[in-house]
């Protein structure tokens, strides 16, 4: 890579050495040079305005480059003019790469007063990328102590903020030890730790550095910035960091962004409004055209100009097996899955961890190699971004809701790909749900809820269940259904995690994970009880709508099969406030769903009972007698309604249908005993009418009493042919006569 010379030696300013790097002429037009349009652009008024700004910036940079002696701002009109020029252009359009070398050197050289140096450093807003050699050259000024401590501190804050804008990092990594030496300064220590956190690789972890951090910790106490660096060191080399560190913190570092991030975002918004295409590249690949905020820009793997220049040469070099070489392969050079497998132990992740979210190869890497340092960096970046960009937690962010939606959607897709939730998303949801209105980014938030990792019930109740319940009861029917769908997916994700991490065939493993399994059972049970409670209340509030009932029963389709399908020793019956509205529903879909659910409950309970009786192993968990009792009560009610027409007499559930005959007679309903069997049930009467019309086409009286005896069996077969599979399996498993008939029929078919 060709580099510009240091400002301490003669040089020609504003030269462009990288053919793909954005130069001043491209910068002034807001894009790259197009030779075919250069003549027309030179004739446009807008170009002439930009040309004037470029000339002013060139003059200002030449002035600052030639400053030799200490200059005072007072009564120096030339200095004030050029300083104002740099500030205005930086805030309006950002500075081109060539301007950083000059301005950094003059700001850190001590030639100007601190007030001027401060204004210069605060004006260092990049329009595209920052050359690494400019940063390295400016770091060298810290060795000679020409600038004050406040300027050094401001420089470190700037370096942390624009870290992702630096086109290369290799020379910065080589300066790791130099930055480490600044830890002794108490004021600079938090920012130095932050910078080291961004620069740390596995080879950066040395025993003497660990000892130094421990000494600082003993001197200063447990500071969050020291804890962050020690945690990262421990992830890379757990054998070297043997101390026990406190649990994870939501925020490790102080906010060091100063005025730069706001200026960068303002420039991006302005560029996006002026032209949706052909803007200077913001840390993206050559194909990137997104002008969105910092997190959205970071979703593309940064490719430096030098890497783009030599991409073909790099591809040739990368054909060599790097496994035997102590080198790192930049991820932007990965093209195929085979390359990933070949170099999987030599990948260098990008500084912009957000780019991992949209790169399938890197996501495959995270699935294959459980590198905790990668997860830690990703969690830190994601947690910080979620806090800063949340449209209802941060003032003046409402205008960026669509961008925030896109980001949340990307995070959700990443969680689906990895099949696990991010702890940073969990922390964000726990904090933001208390302030959420239920409307902003609704589908994205509820999708993220479905990937919340397993937590203790006390934490979930206060941070998840309580805020959701408040919104649930006061929101629309559609929102209620969306919440139920999200909680169903949350339950399924927990159960899938259980299947993956616990082997039910291994006795030793089950016994060794008693606490984990017990915790899972308790948390899952609390979730099911919570859904049962809000479902019961919602059905009363909304007057038992079929649409809502479908989502409730869909949740219980997962619950009823937890024992056999997910190997979880837990079954919880739906509350009466859900069961009876479904049983008496006017819609055949709901009734059919309920029949299938009760059939699966029976299958799971029978299997659990057989396992208990077989005594093949000592079971840690056994279903309580209350579960069997509730099931039996529900079965009596269902059979009494649908088959024997005796629900009002035999239903023994405390909240059931049992009524005295005298009370039923006062209703003046005819044939009240048969009101809910499979012929007269409001959900089934339509099928009965169609059956009568087909069986007796000439009879227009619709005499339902004809459906009895053999014709009852014909009617059953007719219902089965209409797709009521849930009703079929329920009747065949719960009605003795039908069950025996179906078994004998199956035996005849086999013979």
From TrEMBL:
Pfam family, one: CENP-I
Region: Disordered, residue numbers: 1-55
Extent of Polar residues compositional bias: 40-49
Record keyword Transferase present: no
InterPro entries noted in UniProt: CENP-I (IPR012485)
Main location as per UniProt: nucleus
UniProt GO BP: CENP-A containing chromatin assembly; mitotic sister chromatid segregation
Segments forming a coiled coil: none
Cellular compartment(s): Chromosome, Centromere; Nucleus
Keyword line: Centromere, Chromosome, Nucleus
Keyword S-adenosyl-L-methionine part of the UniProt annotation: no
GO CC terms of this entry: inner kinetochore; nucleus
Family note: Belongs to the CENP-I/CTF3 family.
PANTHER family given in the database record: CENTROMERE PROTEIN I
Protein name in UniProt: CENPI protein
Origin organism lineage: Eukaryota, Metazoa, Chordata, Craniata, Vertebrata
Name of the coding gene: Cenpi
